[in-house]
Fold this protein.
Amino acid sequence: MTFQLCYASKTTSPHHQILNDLRDILGEARDFNILHQVQGVLYFADEHFFQCLEGEEVVILHVLEKLYKDPRHHQIKLFRAGHVDQGHFSQWSMKYVRRNSKIQQYFESKGYNHFRPLSLDEQDIPTLLKLLYEIEQPEEFV
Ligand SMILES: Cc1cc2nc3c(=O)[nH]c(=O)nc-3n(C[C@H](O)[C@H](O)[C@H](O)COP(=O)(O)O)c2cc1C
């Protein structure tokens, strides 16, 4: 069984700092996640993060503690946290999805002109995860 935890948060960094933040975050995330068999996906747009983490429960809860202490984001809103039969992102130590029209369309269909993951409800998460799983793009984000 895989423990899955999804959350949304908002960056605390000014616009010009974001690319550096993302590079650092993905580097740190992938180093740790590879060592500790954590997988997942990270999306960033319009000042907001959405991330889903999958792995051993004790390890994911440890990452969550680190996330709460991390000054690069705030307003963490937790969505689902629980065991799933199979993780979605087992191929990726941390799949990064940059701004994407399918995600934008999804938020538009919900009445938002911007990526507003803090406004989502628990029941929206499966659709968002499916989109993030299906989007194919190169690893580089710049
Ligand atoms: C949006 C966001 C996502 C992150 N994702 C991960 C992650 O998947 N795995 C991880 O180990 N750290 C992740 N981090 C970084 C951790 O919060 C932490 O800064 C980093 O792991 C270094 O922790 P340490 O100082 O305890 O070694 C993320 C940070 C942010 C802001």
